[in-house]
Amino acid sequence: MASEALSIIPGAVLRNLSDKLYEKRKNAALEIEGIVKQLATAGEHEKISAVITMLTSDFTFSPQANHRKGGLIGLAAVTVGLTTEAAQHLEQIVPPVLNSFLDQDSRVRYYACEALYNIAKVVRGDFIIYFNKIFDALCKLSADSDANVQSAAHLLDRLVKDIVTESDQFSIEEFIPLLRERMNVLNPYVRQFLVGWITVLDSVPDIDMLGFLPDFLDGLFNMLSDSSHEIRQQADAALSEFLQEIKNSPNVDYGRMAEILVRRAGSSDEFTRLTSITWINEFVKLGGEQLVPYYADILGAILPCISDQEEKIRVVARETNEELRAIKADPTEGFDIEAIVSIAKRELNSEHEATRIEALHWFSTLLCRYRAEFLAYLNDIFDPLLNALSDTSDAVVLLVLEVHAFIAGEPHHFHHLVSYLIQTFHNNHVLLEKRGALIVRRLCVLLGAEKVYREFSTILESEDDLDFASTMVQALNLILLTSTELAELRCLLKKSLVDSCGKNLFESLYASWCHSPMATISLCLLAQAYNHAICVIQSLGEEDINVKFLVQLDKLIRLLETPVFAYLRLQLLEPGKHTWLLKTLYGLLMLLPQQSASFKILRTRLKTVPFGENLKRTYSANPYSQILQVTEDGNRIQDTPNYSAINFQSRLHQFESMQQQHRDHLKIQLQSRKSASAELSQVEFRLHAYI
């Protein structure tokens, strides 16, 4: 066949075809074009095949670069000569040209681009059957090291795009795997090439690129963090166009894309995160039931973004979070409550306050809508929620308390909560000092002050650590006397002498308030049990009146001047009706150092008492021999039917018993310190003796 071709193409033409001068090769190609035209007109296709075979074997596969160049220009000339009949010879013509794209000589690669360009111009649509191989070659050439080859490849690429957009033979199904394989290539030229093809194909009405978007979406997002501004812009433009199409399309595969977006929302690149969260925002609005199984994953992407450094991301993330929380999904439709709980639990440990707050909002939402289902996973999250009460943020602590308030509908959960709080305060006295009031006050608002204080008292009554019990009771007492949230509780305690509910509350608190003499006295003053207050004061021993006691007494004296005790100060206008109140206040005055500010405050107050009237009662050695229990208006307890009076003798015994435990405990502590000190002295003595 080679000899047959030699008889068709003159030897001089073949020699010129391999000449080093381009002009000679070009003229030789023109002569071959003319010969092929004549053969095509005569229908001599076998001879044309022989010419093609000779150009392929003797020229394109030649070790000589000029021969290879001549072979490529010759194959293009054959195609031009065949014109409309070129399609039947493409199997012979195209493969050697494609093979030349891999040639080590950049000029050969350049002429390969030129040859394929001329071939494509002739055959147009018939060219499509080789599209995947051509696309693969162009993808590599787009990153060629030679600028001339890149330019030639770009010209060929534009022509191929034109052919594809006008062809009805193009198979998008066969092309997508080819595209997907290359989407994560890092070369900037290849990336531009790929984005260009995605954009062009998406512009063709008959090609459904949106349906295959999940196959290359991740690659497009990957390009958003490219170091080249131009590539980032092109990728962003393509993504924006696809997002607009999604908004206008009734059939979209949200699920597969949601998985990609969730991964990309955690990108270290700011622009990628913003684009991802923007897409997620639109998906939540548009996706409907399709996205229900992916809610947990989406939430896992949104919550960290709520605390993003970039404000735009934070704004979109917050909006998306609100949209997601507003959706009332049904667990029977794939809404995974356990997964949502797990995500919220994870983000509860976030270093960012805003994220922790939103995680808690999700707990509240789930408790409101799916209480039974939520409580099924309570064992997994109860301890983390309890630990969150030690959070450094007041806002977080308040929300944690709200969640606990929802959970505490069950008595055992409520008891567990209060027990944990007491244990936490026991282990962290700084927390008690700085956040104790905030926590207790909020719990009182959410669960009821009486319920909360009764539970605290019940648990503290049997507290083994007496020092802590005293500290905790003092803290609770201060909150009781100062917080506006506990005003109703104070009003109820004021009725302790005339109302059974007030009496029960008084007795409930008294049991643990006995841990602190000053708290007990404060409780008596609040309940207007002045006769008992003086008995408590008189029962105090020398060891009870220490620095801690005096500090607490100082606080009480100052509190007596606040609006909370306005009723008590007004009762001093009628000393005859409130003799035990006077005696109590004088008893407190006698315990204070005369040079202290609180002594002067109380003495000044007592000087204002109008002693001009004759006292209706005289002081008795035993206050319980003439119990004067009155309300603020002076009505006696006997006027209240069905009321069983408080057994103050029993309460006093209870107080004295508790204080004796504290004294014994103090003695043991002092003995331990002495023993330790003695042992240390012996060790030092032996050490000195040895030296």
UniProtKB/TrEMBL annotation:
Pfam families according to UniProt: Vac14_Fab1_bd, Vac14_Fig4_bd
Listed GO CC annotations: endosome membrane; PAS complex
Keyword Membrane carried by entry: yes
Domain Vacuolar protein 14 C-terminal Fig4-binding span(s) in chain numbering: 431-609
Placement of HEAT repeats on the sequence: 93-128
Annotated keywords: Membrane, Repeat
Biological process, per Gene Ontology: phosphatidylinositol biosynthetic process
Compartment annotation: Endomembrane system
InterPro entries the record matches: HEAT_type_2, Vac14, VAC14_Fig4p-bd
PANTHER family: PROTEIN VAC14 HOMOLOG, TAX1 BINDING PROTEIN-RELATED
Protein name stated in the entry: Vacuolar protein 14 C-terminal Fig4-binding domain-containing protein
